[in-house]
TrEMBL record:
Binds 1 zinc ion per subunit. The active site is at H103 (proton acceptor). This is NAD-dependent protein deacylase. The gene is cobB. Keywords: Cytoplasm, Metal-binding, NAD, Transferase, Zinc. 2 residues (Tyr-52 and Arg-55) present in a large hydrophobic pocket are probably involved in substrate specificity. They are important for desuccinylation activity, but dispensable for deacetylation activity. It is found in: Cytoplasm. Residues 1-226 form the Deacetylase sirtuin-type domain. NAD-dependent lysine deacetylase and desuccinylase that specifically removes acetyl and succinyl groups on target proteins. Modulates the activities of several proteins which are inactive in their acylated form. SUPFAM superfamilies: DHS-like NAD/FAD-binding domain. One of its GO terms (molecular function) is NAD+ binding. Belongs to the sirtuin family. Class III subfamily. It catalyses: N(6)-succinyl-L-lysyl-[protein] + NAD(+) + H2O = 2''-O-succinyl-ADP-D-ribose + nicotinamide + L-lysyl-[protein]; N(6)-acetyl-L-lysyl-[protein] + NAD(+) + H2O = 2''-O-acetyl-ADP-D-ribose + nicotinamide + L-lysyl-[protein].
Length: 226
């Protein structure tokens, strides 16, 4: 069975990684414009690096939870395309063999000058030289607001081919991720939302299950692998 799964911040929240709080425009006490936009990085790269260095350290301390491990088990039984909006590596550490990070990864560094990518160190600075061009233009390899998510052609193709599409721990407020369920439904997939509360696009799903990911996901996977 071909299954496409989209995960968001809610699946990592139970591992202790804080979610984006859209209601007050703040993200861990920082304005989104200051730490998650290209303009914010140009204005104050020191602040942005300090913010992501802390996030990287928090993610390194976090541990995969039952939901991460259940999705890894699902991939052992079915053809699963795992797409995540998260920038942590909890899916990989939870055992998932392949993960598409549409919003980048805390484990990646990107040269703002030449576009070269390499593995991030635990602590990064904007003055760190690029290994390829040597310019001091290092930034996190994160897709910020106003930038185009990664791997979209591959993601759309996987969603089109899926027999089941599941969204787990997502708010349904950030596009293009929020449009994947509707796309899957148009192409004949059964769509299911597993979320702590209904998302902004719950009407796009055939089935909605509400509750913590650590409870919902293992139960859902058990049904598919019975």
């Amino acid at each position: 069975m071909r299954i496409a799964v989209l995960t968001g911040a809610g699946i990592s929240a139970e591992s202790g990684i804080r979610t984006f709080r859209a209601t007050d425009g703040l993200w861990e006490e920082h304005r989104i414009e200051d730490v998650a936009t290209p303009a914010g990085f140009r204005r104050d790269p020191v602040l942005v690096h300090r913010f992501y260095n802390m996030r990287r350290a928090d993610a390194a301390r976090a541990r995969p939870n039952a939901a991460h491990r259940a999705l890894a088990a699902l991939a052992q039984r079915h053809q699963v395309t795992l797409i995540t909006q998260n920038v942590d590596d909890l899916h990989e550490r939870g055992g998932s063999p392949e993960v598409i990070h549409m919003h980048g990864s805390l484990l990646g560094a990107l040269c703002a000058a030449c576009g070269h990518r390499w593995s991030a160190t635990l602590v990064m600075r904007s003055l760190d030289p690029c290994p390829r061009c040597g310019k001091p233009a290092t930034r996190p390899d994160i897709v910020w607001f106003g930038e185009i998510p990664y791997h979209m052609e591959r993601i759309w193709a996987a969603v089109e081919e899926a027999e089941i599409f599941a969204a787990i721990g997502t708010s349904g407020q950030v596009y293009p991720a929020a449009g994947l369920a509707q796309h899957a439904h148009r192409n004949g997939a059964r769509t299911v939302e597993l979320n702590l509360a209904s998302s902004a696009v719950s009407s796009d799903f055939d089935e909605i299950r509400a509750g913590p990911a650590t409870q919902l996901v293992p139960a859902w996977v058990a049904e598919l692998t019975a």
